[in-house]
Amino acid sequence: MNGDFVYLDEVVPGIRWDAKYATGDNFTGKPVDGYLANRIVGTRALCAALGRAQEKAESLGFGLLVWDGYRPQRAVDCFLRWSEQPEDGRTKQRHYPGIDRSELFDKGYVAARSDHSRGSAVDLTLCALATGEAARMGGYHDLMDPVSHHGARGTTPAEARNRELLCSVMESCGFARYAYEWWHYTLRSEPYADVYFDFPVT
Fold first, then answer.
1. What is the CA radius of gyration of the chain?
2. What residues are labeled active site?
3. CA geometry: angle 20, 176, 47, nearest 5 deg
4. Is 85 left (phi over 0), alpha (psi -120 to 50) or beta?
5. Edge-to-edge strand list for the sheet holding 175-178
6. Is the model more confident about 17 or about 2?
7. CA–CA separation, 136 vs 62, rounded Å?
8. How far is CA 150 from the centre of its chain?
9. What tens digit of pLDDT does each residue of 177-199 get?
10. Maximum CA pair distance of the chain?
11. 50, burial (CB in 10 Å: exposed 0-12, middle 13-18, buried 19+)
12. Do residues 96 and 104 touch, judged by C-beta distance below 8 A?
């Protein structure tokens, strides 16, 4: 692993994680290439900023639950191959009910060159401090649908407030939102803004 990358759980006490792409609980329906362990990796800068965000969330009565950080380029390549395969319907209703899998790249939900592969993007949500239960946000992680956009219609007032709270926490700690995904944030001052890494998460 690159020396400027670290395991999130080793540097941010109390943060919770569930690396979705190391499991079958993701839009491909199986573990993704490059994820050999259920852990979150990121640049030291990313993890330091997440530490500040965790403290901010705790001051508001929440914790952070992280689903993805650094993403090997081989995982992105795996997504591309998956998008070109015939539809089998296994994950469509949960993750991309309104579009074809072949449209995920064109619609902006998946990128051939992901900021995750630069080590400074994160997918996450708020969670209950005591239990780790994810806050209601009006849509599941990787729901590739307009309801996942920031400011989307179709969420309840409580869900909209939770999204706004997460956004406020993240933006106050140096992150920028991604318009199409309420869970996706990128560090504004990336240490590797033009480098796409491909070492596996082990």
1. 16
2. 181
3. 55
4. beta
5. 16-17, 62-68, 121-128, 181-187, 175-178
6. 17
7. 12
8. 15
9. 999 999 999 999 999 999 999 99
10. 47
11. buried
12. yes
Task: Count Cβ atoms within 10 A of the Cβ of residue 141 and give its class: 0-12 exposed, 13-18 middle, 19 or more buried.
Answer: buried
| Cα distance between the two ends of the chain | 9
Q: What average pLDDT does the segment 103-126 reach?
A: 94
What is the 3-class SS of the chain, one letter each residue?
A: CCCCEEEHHHHCCCCEECCHHHCCCCCCCCCCCCECCCCCEEEHHHHHHHHHHHHHHHHCCEEEEEEECCCCHHHHHHHHHHHCCCCCCCCHHHHCCCCCHHHCCCCCCCCCCCHHHHCCEEEEEEEECCCCCECCCCCCCCCCCHHHCCCCCCCCHHHHHHHHHHHHHHHHCCEEEECCEEEEEEECCCCCCCCCCCCCEC
- Mean pLDDT, rounded, of the chain: 96
